[in-house]
Amino acid sequence: MGHYWEPCPGGARLLRLLGDTPCPAVPGTIEGLPVAELGPYCFADRPVRPGARRTGDDTHEITGNFVEEVTLPDTVRVLDSAAFYNCRRLRRVTLGPGVEGFGSDLFTNCRQLQTFRLRAAADAPTGLKKLLGAVSADITVELDGAQLFYPEYSEFLDENTPAHIFNHSIEGEGYRMRQCFAADGSLDFAAYDASFAQACVGESEEKLCRLALGRLCLPYGLGDDARADYEFYLTAHPDAAFTLAITARDEAAVKLLVGLGLPTANAAAFCARQGWSAGAALLLGRPKRAAKKTYDFDDL
After folding, report:
1. How far apart, in whole angstroms, are the C-alpha atoms of residue 3 and residue 93?
2. What does DSSP assign to residue 264?
3. What's the pLDDT score for residue 149?
4. CA nearest 101: which of 72, 130, 75, 129?
5. What is the model's pLDDT at position 288?
6. 53: left (phi over 0), alpha (psi -120 to 50) or beta
7. The pLDDT of residue 285
8. Is residue 37 within 8 Å of 8, Cβ to Cβ?
9. pLDDT tens digits, one per residue of 225-244
10. Would strands 78-79 and 115-121 be described as parallel, antiparallel, or unpaired?
11. What is the pLDDT of residues 170-197, one digit of tens each?
12. What is the DSSP string of 38-50?
């Protein structure tokens, strides 16, 4: 693997990664310096700015539609503007808890981005609030011991033409859910769970089931009342819940739904159509094959 890079405060700024994998892991050091920043347009299909230093023998640039997943080391503290610009096949970004600087337009046109994975405890202070502010589309966040889904939201500027006044409006519970953080940057799980009631007013069945399943399968900081709300919603929408779990081939989610006593006949049929035999076995409650009996002299 090769790199274009330049020195920066605290170490090295990565300007371009070179190699043949669409799922690269950014190294922690370059020529002995810790990789502290992803430079502007690092993974975008743009020319590297003149004067950049180069290491390694690889020539293929890991950019644009070639990029599918990126794993960043714990040394990275800053993601500069448009670092993932136009990475239309990017699905997942994994990073450490110490990223604290975020530029603008980080994920512009990253239309398949689905997941942020943070190597951090569920209650640890992180830069997640700022990171979520860079994505208004649906996004799932995975931490150690917790999984949270944030629905899409939309922002609008409406002009009052005679007065030339712009009214700023935001639609979607996803925006308010992105504000559920304590002052130190740690997640406020109680506030996040409290937003579910309002989300039920405007969000789709599929999104609400994603939210509920994420919290119930990894219930860090989940109170009894919130648990009851999530379970009640899934019980009232079994088809949507099972469809989501089966499509994702999520055994933990299927087991949870079966444990709630949801009817499984339709789900088992859908599972069979999807060709997922392991899921069908969970739904049908197929018993484990009994061990072959052995006989001794007293049995004869």
Report:
1. 19
2. -
3. 97
4. 130
5. 44
6. beta
7. 78
8. yes
9. 999 999 999 999 999 999 99
10. unpaired
11. 788 899 999 999 999 999 999 999 999 9
12. EPTTTTSSSPPPT
Q: Which residues of the chain have pLDDT under 70?
A: 156-169, 286-300
At 50 the pLDDT is 87
- Which residues touch 108 (CB under 8 Å, ≥6 apart)? 82, 85, 86
Threshold 0.85, pTM exceeds: yes
How would DSSP label each residue in 154-216? EEEEEEETTTTEEEEEEESHHHHHTT-B-TTS-B-HHHHHHTHHHHHHHS-HHHHHHHHHHHH
Cβ-Cβ contacts under 8 Å for 103 (sequence gap 6 or more): 40, 78, 79, 80, 81, 82, 83
Residue type, 198: Q
- Which residues, in sequence order, are bridge partners of residue 70? 93
The answer to whether the CB of 16 falls within 8 A of the CB of 42 is yes
Phi/psi region, residue 164 (left: phi>0; alpha: psi -120 to 50; beta: rest), is left
Distance CA 78, CA 265 (A): 50
State the residue for tokens 């899921």. 279
